[in-house]
Write a structure and sequence with these properties.
The complex is a heterodimer of chains A (about 450) and B (about 290). With about 450 residues, chain A is of the alpha/beta class. Helix content of chain A is about 30%, strand content about 20%. Chain B has 2 domains: about 35-90, Orthogonal Bundle (3-methyladenine DNA Glycosylase II, Chain A, domain 3); about 100-285, Alpha-Beta Plaits. Chain B is built from 11 helices and 8 strands. Chain B has helices at about 5-30, 35-45, 60-65, 80-90, 125-130, 150, 180-185, 210-215, 225-230, 255-260, 280-285, and strands at about 100-105, 160, 165-170, 190-195, 200-205, 235-240, 245, 265-270. In chain B, helix 2 (about 35-45) packs antiparallel against helix 4. Classes of the chains: A alpha/beta (about 450), B alpha+beta (about 290).
Amino acid sequence: MLKTFPTGGVHPPENKITANAPIQSLPLPEQVIIPVSQHIGAPATAIVNKGDTVKAGQTIATSKGFVSSNIHSSVSGKVSKIDMVTDTTGYKQTAVFIDVSGDEWVDTIDRSEEIIQDVGLTPEEITRKCLDAGIVGLGGATFPSHVKLTVPSGKKCDVLIINGVECEPYLTADHRLMLERGEEVLTGATILMKALRVEKALIGIESNKPDALAHIAKLASGFKGITVHGLKVKYPQGAEKQLIKALIKREVPSGRLPLDVGTVVHNVGTAFAVYEAVQKNKPLFERVVTVTGRSLSSPGNFLVRTGTPVSKLIAAAGGMPEDTGKIVAGGPMMGKAINNTDVPVVKGMSGLLLIPLEESGRAGSEPCIRCARCVSVCPLGLEPYLLMTLAELGLYERAETEKITDCMECGSCSYTCPAARPLLDYIRLGKGIVIKMARERNLK
Amino acid sequence: MSSVIPLTIISLSVIASIAAVILFFVARKFKVFEDPRIDEVQEILPAANCGGCGFAGCRNFAEALVKADSFEGLVCPVGGAKIMEEAAALLGKEAPVVDPLVAVLLCNGTPEFRPKTSNYTGVYDCRISHNLYAGESDCSYGCLEYADCVRACAFSALYMDPETRLPVVIDEKCVACGACVKACPRNIFELRKKAKKDRKIYVACSNCDKGGPARRACKVACIGCGKCVKVCQFDAITLENNLAYIDATKCTFCRKCAPECPTNSILEINFPPRKQKIEAEPAQTTEN
């Protein structure tokens, strides 16, 4: 019997069409555009100036505050300007533009293929290295990893969870990473265990990746304390709270963090990045991105430097199909549509999905018939139909008591609604307003 | 059997009289004194309950007026000077002189000027669209065209023009309650001082981008060139964040700035046509 979380969840068509496509390195572009904010928290401050020569791996923006992250150059070349750039949201933010010349890396980076398994550093040194290397959660939320590795006094962590679920349809970046870089991922997990001072780590992988599951399980026998668990295919199993519930049967209370139940969750992509940062001194400046879509001629998984324009990725996957109706950064469930292919790849971009025009529209919304399907699929046990109405009518106090802020915006409710109600759209709006209200109240 | 009815009447009467006595004393003990003038002031107020004064409704505003030592900062935008004077006379205070205001949309990004770069198929709601992305055009500051302001207006002073796809303010109906200002997620409504014959000169743009990107996104965007600032003799125009702003309280309607604007982002409304023919154009393209 495979493990899974008990409440709600949906099972959209998996469409993992790139599951067998090995990771390819994308050629360097002529110019990269590196936004200074690629993480949750305060944007970093650019420390390079126009005309500076930089090497790949050089810090070009430093973190500001505890919840923030360093940004590194992903290429070698010359800073052509520091200007505003349209990011994936369509809004503008500060970015460093670098004209690429050659591919020279910072000397301290170990570029050999050799896998180093021994970890000689103390937990503090590991956390420090994660901070310096600009490691953020690569599952999509881009929460700075060093914050998660710093266990506040009074709290205890006894188990680490490595998230290899990849429950979003279409995406296969983590899948390929586990298959091709399994040993590095597991070493990364060992490093994270050491940083958190825990003896036990659990890796959760959904059963639709039997090859990755078998591969990692085989490798894990050589690592102390790491066990691998197959999980039933169900969205959103990759969400932190759901994965914790599925693997160790602990429930993170409303408004609390996994640390409150003695665990920390890191993505396999993050584990790999931590491995590279700690053992190879390589900052986070490239990641695996799945470029996929049914109309693409050669969809695949690409190892790409941050700051590369999205258009290069599409070109590498066979060019933009004529019937493209929507380009989504991320997966189809939680990803965000982008309106411009010049936007740069950022640390949090796990995939790029090109949806044909005929599939990209939204069905017209009809009145709610109180079928309660949204209630039965909500993984957090909320009542989406009610939250939507409350947000629509502006009854934010009531929405707060109905726990609108617990919503993690997985979109299961909108996906399942037979009347195609824009449930998540309104819930997200209401959630934003309620969070703002609560913040203002706390300030008083 | 025959004694049941009189007995009931008697017992109920006794209970009623005891309750009456209790109620009498309780009512006296817990009586809330309310200034009778509050009711009188409320009678004068327009009963629109729009919240334009900053209070929850007309009753709260009436209470505030009665309690206040002076009317400083207390204005009913719907009633305007006339009603404030009446209220002041009733309460024996002095009503401050208030300039009547009118809502103005600081965007002129019609489809003709501002080409669409994407299609939004989500909910017809500005706030939701604003949270999701920059909007259908490349301008991330301008009007989103989903009529949140029209729905917020309690006085039917706004409507969507199907051709320009922008909201239009009907000056006669607008009471400057500020509901549209609050409803707009892009914050592109401004309450400006009303002038004679509803005349207006303003920069119909909110784009804070630099000249190049702003111009590419919209042909009538303010590019922050500063020409209008130089030509203005009354220090009424300021340039901040690549965006010019004309202060309505300082503007004398000399009309020197509008012809200077290279992108025609300064609109002149309700003015007689200029003698030279080229410069009459901007006024033609506007809503009013």
